[in-house]
Records
---
Amino acid sequence: MKNYILEGCVDSVESAIIATKGGANRLELCSNLIIGGTTPGKGLFLEVRKNCNIKTHVLIRPRFGDFCYTEHEFNIIKEEINMFRELGANGVVIGILKPDGTLDIERMKELIELTQGMSVTLHRAFDVCKDPIQVLEQAKDLGIHTILTSGQKNHCIEGKELIGELVKKAAGEIDILIAGGVCDKVIEEMYPATKATSFHMSGKVVRDSAMLYRKEGVNMGLPSQSEFEIWQTDEENIRAAKETLEHIIKTE
């Protein structure tokens, strides 16, 4: 059977443990998945490593929003790569664009030098770049190992034509990791269309808070988001995706 990656995208220790039990064979650890993910803290990383025995890649994203960073933000990214390398992370998930939508190659080179042999994933900055084929070739030249993408669409099924093209042009030199709405049913559709064998998913469900007393009319953030809803990975969602991926690859 071909090798495959089922990466659980998690932002809590609980979700990391659940994803591992469900059959994920790698984790992407972040914070604040509700806003697309930001850099996790040291304490979260250490607690995940204490409780999970699979490879863990760390998202390095200092804030919500675009991927055009100030000098201060760039310095933060460098410090965080150094920190997580020293803590034993298996990889980092990074990306910087210039204002014109091209990959910031000079800054990316500087970051990759800091990784000192860690796995490097170009995150979904790729999905908002100007020319994905050009960036794919640049990523190869930089020695990046993985591109995380939904095919420049909100959902990977909408982007499957581009993803299929990326897999062909990658030619085994760089892994195309599919993101954006991934579940068992999506894998069933995406594999025949793209031949990709790497998938990234949160498998999340919304769980009710343990709080019994609930103060009304006070919001810690956006009024549209309830403080009493917890996003958490669901073990069955991960397991179903794993079983589907293994079955498809085995019978190919």
---
Amino acid sequence: MPRHVAIVEDEPLIRANYVEAVGRIGYEVRGYGSRPEAETAFAQRLPELVIIDIGLGDEPEGGFELCRSLRVRSPTLPIIFLTARDSDFDVISGLRLGADDYLAKDVSFHQLAARISALFRRMDALRRPAESDSILEQGALRIESERMRISWNGQDVPLTVTEFWMVHTLVRFPGHVKSRDQLMRDAQVVVDDATITSHIKRIRKKFVAIDPAFDAIDTVHGAGYRWRS
């Protein structure tokens, strides 16, 4: 049975395009044009993954409200924000509300499809016994690779899928400088250098929120980044 994906987007043409494209790769897809319409449908049946825009009709923060209510109902439901609003404030707000990933609308469909697939793999892994996971530890850091879960000093770090793979790449080779191109390749994104820099800044902020003394990620100017060994 195909996985059930919901897309909440108020622009009819954009919504139809996403519904058609996501359906083409084998998912059962339903589109909704507003927060109330989506919530009415979700009260009858929760999807297995939700893609949400932030501004929904006359609700500039409607997507945030929908994310909040979905998280109350299901702590593990995969949620992706797909929006034109890509300021640090909006990204951090969305992730703090419990979204699993946050993508700008100029993202390629290939990247969106990779994110959907990665989140479903994580959900499948979470249902398996922890003993089957491959564990990578480096000091206070613990990575459960199959579950795409990272913790620092025993506390979960709320990383997006993109951020998870960036940290994973750095930690696998502690002390080695990883270029922006290598980080993009491993995270399956194609973005400019400034966007990679923004990702690294957000990653640092999330670790610092748990441990103000965190300083494990070095910037090597002109070369890339490394995880301190």
